[in-house]
Design a protein that fits this description.
The structure is a homohexamer of 310-residue chains.
Chain A lengths: L16 E4 L2 E4 L4 E3 L3 H5 L2 E9 L2 E2 L2 H14 L8 H14 L6 E8 L18 E8 L6 H4 L1 E5 L20 H10 L6 E5 L5 E4 L3 E6 L2 E4 L9 H12 L4 E3 L4 H5 L3 E6 L3 E8 L2 E2 L7 H25 L2
């Protein structure tokens, strides 16, 4: 999510240990070669995960996406699913984290013999990095909201670069964000190739009109775990939701709006291209979904505990 | 260029020194933080350069492209043009290189406070890396040629992600290459959004039919320095050349074909989607352009020497 | 379906009689003028039909499509529906066929005064040809499967040439197949104009992921009778099925896949662009659908018998 | 060209002999199997040629296009260039034709073992048919002109079906013509995928505004021999000509217009979608080009004679 | 709806009074400045409404659309919803109308200081015009029907000009109508940017095939109040209805067809591009919907009366 | 041009007379019926013209465009070319204007019997309005420049609504302007359907990079008289100019930029999406073109005087 969010430096993050290819090293020593495929080519996939009351939330969904993404780019992660889960927990344990940590798991094609695009030039194993930090959305974001501005940069279709692949090549999206920063945007709203609303540059986008939640159909936005949860929460709680091809003017006329992501969960939007959201911050439907989502997180944490118990 | 090229490890590359933010460090110590924007986001621009008889070939064109690319992504390189040239020469000097070095200059947005897309979260200066290695295209490539295969992945248009930006986010192109490796492709041929021939995944593509050199118009391919030189060499030497929207079948029926790039210069293509090039390897027009390009390199090197002389 | 299938020459096909404009003539004498609109222009429509236990399967659906197609190209078939059915049965009777025959009914605009595109230059009646042969998919295809490869040739939209028209102008599709034969493809997988999965060159395409059957929405693929039956069988048997715009990478990650057509019914796919289908050949969902489809054929044959009984 | 043209039956065509795979057979006996790839699939390429004062006009251009088209669809014609020329002349000789014959050379993939799309199922050699007839555009067409009407059917792009391939699969174009016949169109004017003027269904389209000849750029129209000649005649005679992407309204506002094709040469257009051409029939530029084209034909015939002389 | 409809001049319309910015003025004096944004720029939004048995039908839906449209173009209407309703009733009262009036409410950006596009140059308040006339569809239209012809002009997508905005800039649509008048069209049928059926130039389009009502999905057609009512009537009365992307040939093969609009309600279509509708005029499904719609109007009028009663 | 320009009210405009259908009426009495096709439908075409030293500049070009536009929408202007010129001069004479007047000539389809789209419902003659005012671009605009911001609204292609038609239906363009006003834009920069730079909402756009003037190819921008003059001035004065498909980032990196229009002539641009133009205001190439354009105006005025002299 965009930079206007105020991340308060947390003193507990002072002596972090980072997982780096099986080692837990101090943050300052967590370094990769300049010949790493991640650095030279953005050739990797990643996951953001949140720790909540001891559990890694929606872990299965995240790992499904990670392994599917790796398979899609023919990247051998080197660790099987159980080993990857162990690595995540080892990282949390090394940092004595039990609640509120935000993790970023990064997997790249590792060091290259020659820094060209050919994946066959990778010298050895994938680079696996796990960073865990205490990081929370600022309290005020729920009442202040994010300002969105629409970029002229459009989302790529799947036959060019599938937005659903959670990759290290983020520059197309950063370009969209750069486009709107001078316009006061915290996050860029992006249109699909046909000119309909599709995604934000780092989160998924929803809005509410006359009680109906609306979002894009999914071909041109992130395959978001939180997005999926919001859609399921709507269905399960009889909140009308419609996935369709909507024009930008539909969002401009919204009653309320929010973006979703693993880090921020459900974050209210204050204005879109200068159009203020009239239903308050957060709006009533947004707030209801936030409450439902909080309950879902607790339920998931409890369920994970029970599953882990002997 | 694709991995089928046989890069012979050169013993002179044993103790390389790499420029890393003003320091010249041994290759094994050339490392960046896992919080570097290049590693986490592919947020950077780069140039490949060749040293030839003491000179850095087409240095102005490369620096023009580098600074234009950095401006396009609002990246402050931290070094002005003279300082950047000095850094390149210092790297060559530290490695005692006077001829035949291949350089990769990489510039990323540096270490991030939070590893999200927001460029305002960069903590400080850009990361500047310069790698210089002895590296030559294998001698046999001129007679063996590259096999191209067309990918179903298409080039992105400029309103999504401009191919002309020489960026660290290479995964869309790597995906295209991954698509053709099982088909025996050394390099992927890619179509533009309208289905016409546009580019290879890491080089620019030309072909020859009835004495006419053909290539794409330039909206959907790399802004290649070598590409520009080839076009100028054709114009200057009365070799017919046409930049247009060509169908794939036009390349399949080519007499000869080649790809261009800073590393390989002009590299012949042996076959495209199984269609062998009937005019030999290299074909006569390809060979003539190679000869002209070799002369241009010598001329440039001489000119650079003269300019540098007191 | 593609040529890799091993059609065993059946000795019962030795003395076939072919329906040609009301006559039943030996196969070798079944000839049309080189001025026939079918030959010079591909100006005609056709149906493939299968005889099963005495009945012509799904005859209504095939005739609906035939007459709709003829109307769409302003082609007067010259025979009404009852007469066409009689012709089909007369052909079968002339060859003493009661089970296992495969029929191809072809209807072109007949002999032209001038061999140009103008339909008003047709001299007289449509050319109606009915070929009936003993022809079965090879037994091993169910375990060996078809290898698909994606063509760079895309399906035409309806405002250019509607894939749903079952026409004699097959060269766009043959071109797609030609594209993949050198890549080891038995059949070409084709994308729609927007780059999503749509069709194979001669069959319709389905795949299975996590128990869900997936296929394209239908705007850019064949209006297949078997396709319709598979969708109905899924709905009737609570097999999850989704018709949507899917990216190619979704098929690459499939558990199993199959193609459908009147001749082959439901034919398993072994690999797609080199990605093997992990769920076996045929996969469990494919096998279940094959079993259901076999039952449907028997049921249809029985029903046809009952309807025909006095 | 469309059916409104009045082809007068010529008594000299009474006892025509047709070339059929090396035999010269009476027209009524010129028949192909219903298993021929041309009949079942439209799987073939063809050329129209005109005999003028003993010579076959622009023979090299036609044969270039024929062999390129055959290569594009992987069709082995079975005859080399010299043999093909001999076949054309043998056909003319068998019919005692020395001037004014119109020839149609058709080459299909021949008889299929199974009538599916797979080219590997062709049993043997290509089917080669040469029809030569005495056929002239009616005298009055030059003063009456053709009425064009724009179809809603658009031209296919090369990544779907290249209009430049002179194929037997003409139904997409016949559909366009069918679309305009009820509107009084003799020939359909067609737009390209982006909505610009591209082609007629069977001829190429030119118009004249303020003395400038205009036509499409060539990506989405026929690779016409006469089209090429008209462009060259304009260039050679300082007649301004512009190939560009023009909107339909530009043609509606034309001073004069004409279509080109091997049979009709340069045929004036009387009206486009009801807009009459104000500059007369033929208009002055059209007439000048007709005169230049007539001279070119004579010159070509003379040159062919000289080349043929001992 | 198109001009072929025979509007009989009604003598009761002789001395109409028109609402003009708060005044009720005789029709001949209802004039606006040539500097009005409506006149110079088409800068305004409008609604058509029908009076039925004392009530303004579907008034809420019309006002919702009006105020949403005004907000979309940043136009301050100057009257709140209650005031606008009062103005409508005042206009009807001034003309002693109680049943059968057709109203057109027009709101433009008012008089401009400079006649350029900048909305900030508007000198003062919006121009509000309400015209009420006795106007009925001719009785014979139900049995004669409208002839549609497809235009080559396509509907604009929402990222260019949203068809759902009921604006005063109607020339793109008038151009489509002009295109088909010479072809005998009463109203133009228009395709969407992808070439599928979307809308008529002034009404929405539906057709019926095998008992199923079909229409476009709504992204590229008018946000019609009557369209919405027809869809709801189908749903409420178990009449199958499908909103999808349909090819033009689907409409050509329709059993019956109709267009919808506030003025004409549900108007049968007699032919589409020369294809006559075989199910009669009106067809049975059309007639059933007309009957249901008549009942809905009565119900609405009764309900409005009851609501208005003390 | 956009509203940020400071039009100083000129006292000489106090008692203007406006041409209204053959009458010269005081400005306040220049009114049209609310049934006028211009007001209800934006159904008309217009021209802006400038008087300079007694002459109407580029009068032929403006009248060519006016009559071509009227023909394109089947609008009979009612006045022939000589009569129209006389009307323009009569308007200037009635206002005693000899230099510096700006004229807007508007022609709509006149009063409608029914206010629907059908042009056949026009009751009588076209409405012709000519407004002449003393109006000059503010002196400071040349040094202050216009701020452009790119709209997400894209230009319409010619098969939807040709930007080259100078129409009264300006709302698509006003929508683009409305989009950028909150971003501080004086004028909206707009992209074409493929995402390349095409036009501003009310002017044409040029920029300068390394001494080369750049602009769009013309398919998706206004057919501007000033645009044509600038292109011709470049050609005539050896100023490099390139018309092509450029990405937005190319304009962001411009040295200088300007817009063209009849009213403002050549107006410098100060910033584009926040990117300031580094070459000053006006930049040197812009200034050179302004000087050349001033000379051209004088030359034209002199030439017009000479032509008018007895």
């Amino acid at each position: 999510m965009a930079g206007s969010q105020d991340f308060t430096a947390d003193p507990r993050n002072a002596n972090l240990k980072v997982w780096l290819n099986g080692q837990l090293v101090p943050k300052d020593e967590a370094k990769v070669s300049v010949f790493d495929a991640g650095f030279v080519l953005g050739d990797g996939v990643w996951e953001g995960l949140r720790q909540h009351k001891g559990a890694l939330l929606f872990l299965d969904a995240h790992l499904d996406r990670l392994y599917a993404g790796a398979a899609d780019i023919a990247l051998d992660l080197g660790l099987n699913r159980a080993e990857m889960i162990a690595a995540l927990h080892a990282t949390l344990a090394a940092n004595d984290m039990t609640h509120g940590a935000h993790l970023r798991l990064m997997a790249t094609r590792g060091v290259k013999a020659a820094v060209n695009q050919d994946p066959r030039n990778a010298l050895g194993a994938a680079t696996i990095v796990i960073v865990a930090e205490y990081k929370e959305p600022s309290a005020e974001i729920a009442t202040k909201g994010l300002a969105l501005a629409t970029s002229t940069i459009r989302c790529t279709p799947a036959d060019m670069f599938d937005m659903r692949l959670n990759s290290h090549s983020r520059l197309p999206l950063i370009r969209a964000l750069l486009d709107v920063i001078p316009k006061g945007g915290d996050e860029a709203l992006m249109l699909d190739p046909g000119g309909f609303i599709s995604s934000c540059n780092a989160t998924n986008f929803f809005w509410v009109k006359d009680g109906e939640v609306r979002t894009s159909t999914g071909e041109f936005c992130f395959n978001g775990v939180t997005r999926g949860n919001v859609i399921r929460l709507c269905d399960a709680n009889a909140i009308p939701i419609k996935l369709d091809f909507f024009p930008l003017r539909d969002a401009h006329a919204a009653d309320e709006a929010f973006v979703t992501g693993t880090f921020g969960g459900i974050t209210p939007v204050s204005r879109i291209d200068g159009h203020a959201m009239p239903a308050g911050l957060p709006g009533p439907v947004t707030q209801r979904l936030r409450t439902l989502y909080d309950a879902l997180k607790d339920e998931q944490a409890l369920y994970a505990q029970m599953r882990a118990a002997p």
